[in-house]
Write a structure and sequence with these properties.
single chain, alpha+beta, Jelly Rolls, 2 domains, five-stranded antiparallel beta sheet, three-stranded antiparallel beta sheet, 3 helices, 24% helix
């Protein structure tokens, strides 16, 4: 591990320990933390208390890197997703998807006629699948294959700097 990564890692551990101390000593803080439903809410609450615990292991700062650096892709406004076609041919397309605190509209499911493979590059996401019902949590490097007509929905993605995905769609024809 590079020295800079070690320093960042140790700093996060220190902040997490201070956060844990606060929660153990203050019943109101404990109740607020217990009321959080997901990672994003915990990070937001911790930030409101002055702790920076949001970055996951291995994530870098994603400053401007030019159009060739996918990891420097800007985050859309909160609650939205943006898609950009990186490459395509007659039977396939490769998309870059940026999500910011996004979730599929309530009760709506995606049902596609093509195959889809997604890879999380930055952030995290939670995907609900039907038949069989399953919840899949994805972090950087995790991927998921969806067969045609496998109903699915996005339950959540990270807030700024957001979740960044690669999605490959293809037909078998």
């Amino acid at each position: 591990m590079a020295e800079q990564d070690l320093i960042r890692f140790l700093s996060k551990i220190s902040q997490l320990q201070s956060l844990a101390d606060r929660v153990q000593q203050d019943s109101v803080s404990r109740e607020q933390l217990a009321a959080c439903a997901d990672h994003n809410q915990v990070v937001e609450l911790a930030q409101s208390w002055g702790f920076d615990i949001g970055r996951r292991w291995g994530e870098r700062d994603h400053g401007p890197g030019g159009e060739t650096n996918l990891l420097a892709t800007a985050c859309p406004p909160p609650g939205e997703e943006s898609m950009h076609v990186l490459a395509s041919a007659e039977t396939w397309r490769l998309l870059l998807i940026a999500s910011n605190d996004y979730r599929s509209p309530s009760g709506e499911w995606m049902d596609q006629s093509d195959h889809e493979w997604v890879l999380v590059l930055r952030g995290s996401a939670c995907i609900a699948l039907e038949n069989p019902d399953r919840i899949v949590d994805l972090s950087p490097g995790d991927h998921l294959s969806l067969s045609p007509h496998r109903r699915h929905r996005v339950e959540r993605t990270d807030g700024d700097p957001g979740t960044l995905w690669l999605a490959l769609h293809w037909d078998e024809n």
